Amino acid sequence: MKRLVWVPVMIGFVAGGYRFIEWYYDVPENGTQASIRELDVSVPAPQTREPMGKVLSETIGSEPTAEVKEEDAAAEIAAAEEPISKIKPPSSSLGVGPSSSLGKGPPIAPIPMVLDDAKTPEPPAEYEYPGHGPITEALLSEKDPGRRSAILRQLIENGTDREQVIEAATAEAKRSREEGEKPLEWEALSYLFFNSKSEVHRDQMRARLDELVESIIFSRGPGPNSEMYMIQPGDSLAKIAAKYNCPVRLMQKINKIIDAHMIRAGSRLKVIKGNVEILVRRRDFSLTATLDGKYYRHYSIGIGADDLTPTGEFVVNQKIDDPTWYDKGRVIPPGDPENILGTRWLGFEATDTVSGIGIHGTTEPDTIGRKASAGCIRMHNKDVEELESVTPKGTHVRIE
Questions:
Q1: Active-site residue (options: 201, 360, 380, 396)
Q2: How is domain 226-272 classified at the CATH fold level?
Q3: pLDDT (tens digit, 9 = 90+) per residue, 133-159?
Q4: Looking at residue 159, what is its pLDDT?
Q5: Between helices 182-194 and 145-157, what is the axis angle to 10°?
Q6: Which of 201, 376, 380, 396 is catalytic?
Q7: CA dihedral defined by 114, 120, 126, 128, rounded to 10 degrees?
Q8: d(CA 196, CA 204)
Q9: N or C end: fewer C-beta atoms under 10 angstroms in the chain?
Q10: pLDDT (tens digit, 9 = 90+) per residue, 21-79?
């Protein structure tokens, strides 16, 4: 009799355990395991949800970009900035600059949407609410995209409860995706990207963010963070670059200009406006550029061995094509097998405690993702060439 009593008890225990697994892993009725809840980005109504993979799976087209010949742009770049071929970076044990102790540079305004993972708890894997909170409801009740953007920006800047902002940004990212409001989706998804510690989650969002940036920034059409400039008689790309603090190469890439000297008065030119900043995260070997706080570009990097890459805040003050390496009294020209600097050098302004640090390419691509340099930040040559093309002088860099 006792054995018969235990039979329904054990059946109930097994059934309860299966229902828990079904709830956590989102197992459908047919028994096939769906994506784990951590990957969901949409804010569901009660008993409904759509996995993030659906939100991010669609692709958009973008115009192909023409390669810009470096020799065609050289004259304009030299006129717009310092003669980069004549800048001599000081020598150093830290890659290119003079030897120095390591420390922090001058304080600058932080990149607004990047939070300190060490101090900020990870949000729940899925935002399952009994209904949208009042902030999200207010956001969703707005029909005008410009007003919704202003509300979202105010939520972020005012330091509103982080969970509520994440809920609102998630709902807005999904809504704007469905409505084709790419600039607003870019803004909302950027916030979620910088506030997730899940690598898989960020990888999925980054794929969509790259598509949005290509469509919004690198296409020839008008959009946020840009102006359609009417070329005036006597204008040159150098003059326009100086006026807008927009690199010549970036204007050439966006506007499909092969020869920097061949621009015509009366035609329109798309110019990018906004504040570019760079965040370097040593612990995950990544460099992310932002444009007015929104995701711009993301790259894998290599850093200094033995923690030689300093933390702190710096400013880009040198941009050099095919840099010469000055190493402990040796002058190693570009193209020499012993010159490890690759095709570009973005040097940082010296501080009271640090000099000779910068971002450069490499002839040793296998060192990307590793601690191998003498202190500088290494990138694949194609990546540092793109970063140089979107980074004006005076760009702030934070290394953490």
A1: 360
A2: Membrane-bound Lytic Murein Transglycosylase D; Chain A (3.10.350)
A3: 777 888 888 889 889 998 888 888 886
A4: 64
A5: 20
A6: 376
A7: -110
A8: 11
A9: N
A10: 333 334 334 433 333 233 233 333 333 333 333 333 333 333 333 343 444 444 444 44
Residue type for position 74: A
H-state helical runs in the chain: 2-25, 52-57, 70-80, 134-141, 145-157, 162-179, 182-194, 199-216, 237-244, 248-255, 381-390
The answer to whether 168 and 127 have CB atoms below 8 angstroms apart is no
Domains 77-111+276-399 and 226-272 share a fold: no
Q: Which residue has the tokens 């990018």?
A: 272
- Return the CATH class of domain 77-111+276-399: mainly beta
* Number of residues written out for the chain: 400
Among candidates 385, 122, 143, 140, which has minimal Cα distance to 247? Answer: 385
Reported pTM:
0.69
Rounded Cα–Cα distance for residues 195 and 175 (Å): 19
Residues with Cβ within 8 Å of 330's Cβ and at least 6 positions away in sequence, in order, are: none
Quote the distance between the C-alpha of residue 59 and its chain's center: 19
Domain boundaries of the chain, sorted by first residue: 1-37, 77-111+276-399, 134-195, 226-272
Angle at which helix 248-255 crosses helix 237-244, to 10 degrees, equals 110
246 is catalytic: no
Check: CB of residue 390 under 8 Å from CB of residue 109.
Answer: no
Residue 221 phi, psi dihedral angles, 5° rounding: -80, 160
Structure tokens at 171: 């709902």
